[in-house]
Amino acid sequence: MFCHLRPVRSLCLEKAFPHWLSCSRAFSGAEAVNALRPFYFVVHPDFFGQHPREREVNENSLQKLSVYLENLQKPGFKSLKPTQLTFYVRETDQHSPDSQATFSTFGFRAVKFTLHTRDLLSTVLYILNSCSLSVEHVQSSNSSVHPQPLKEARGVPDRPIKWDKSYYSFTGFKDPDEDLEQVSRAETTLTSWLDSNGKRAVKRLENSLPLRKELDRLKEELSRQLQLSDIRWQRSWGVAHRCSQLQSLGRLAQQNLETLKNAKGCTVIFTDRSGVSAVGHVMLGTMDVHHHWTKLFERLPSYFDLQRKLMFLEDQISYLLGGIQVVYIEELQPVLTLEEYYSLLDVFYNRLLKSRIPFHPRSLRGLQMILNSDRYAPSLHDLGHFNIPTLCDLVYLQWFLLTKAQQARENMKRKNELKVTESELIQASTKKFSLERFYKDPSVSSVQMVDCCTRLLDRPLPWLHGMHLCVSNFYSVMQDGDLCIPWNWKNGRATK
């Protein structure tokens, strides 16, 4: 879980970070989360409730950042693919008068940067500097770091501008300056955070109940009218935003009911772009107009034909590779359309046909593999599935699959056992705390969820009664009253 710091060789990083970076001690994952709290306070989607587009961008970037930080902590990692992120950053009092940053009329600015760091500490400093946030708290927490200011760092403005207090009174959001003061005084613990934020969450939840009922009604009505399998959302939009999306789909159904019935039996997902996903879900881009949605529903029969061809390709690849199952795991793979995924499978299948590498029939039956285009060598995931690059060396692939097959079976067995344990703990936690809903962020693994639930069950937490609780990577009260807590929450005295 710990990464030893290496000298920073990138020219841009040398400009941004002083020479003491390579001399600092190892930085843990928990320290990274604590150090990034000021960053979370200025980019958290909960503060962009009135700006759905910016909220969505920040949600997407936070998920990518979480994966990047998690990969940095994996033992034996060599290097990570550069990850480009975009965040909308709210104004704080940390911006200098000579700043060249451009703020919108709504009080936030867009920040773009690319992560290509090699350890947690340099990553944290790079993020804070990119967003023009102070790094003094990072220096003070890392005892081996020489207390040298970073005023010379790349574009570190410090403009002393604050939002008017009426904004927080009107929106119900908590003044982030108050939160930052709390963070600077002591590490947040679960009980102290719930004591401070429980009433606010209850009030927001109560205010959202009428809209939640309306959302359930609209979802049930549309699912029945269009005979859909399910309606889902890819992003954590607020209840009001989700209702608006369903109402928009409902109006389209009134105008083109027969066309929309082409989606009978499908799952509809509101997401970034319109199309059909790799697993056959109908994706409705939230920024698209009704005309685009109508065209998509009209073309669904042709998509179903392509899906049948895709399934045939998967079967053929499985046959050529000893019966291993080709799967697409939404939580672990990039969002691909049906056409993109078919193209990926087709390239790999044609390469297999030409090489004709020998596999004993059904020798890999019961195992799973996912195809990807951004890796250079096959690997075995902790969850038991193989990550196979489309253009990998097929002779090496044969050797890798055969030698790792037993380990893959063991990993899959542990995954299945872990899933059962996780499900039982979620049910037990829901029952003990009388939670209305208990769920986790996609970035939280089953191992982390089990650890979180196990410790939750040992605590008396009356604030959770009747609440919607999400296990994530940081504390937050969402705009509709959902409580977000980090999976590695602490209780009692803070530990360093």
UniProtKB/TrEMBL annotation:
GO terms for cellular component: mitochondrion
Originating species: Phyllostomus discolor (pale spear-nosed bat)
Q: Where is the DUF4460 domain?
A: 25-133
Q: Which Pfam families match?
A: DUF4460, DUF4461
Describe the location of the DUF4461 domain by residue ranges: 188-490
Q: What is this protein called?
A: T cell activation inhibitor, mitochondrial
Which superkingdom heads the taxonomic lineage of this protein's source? Eukaryota
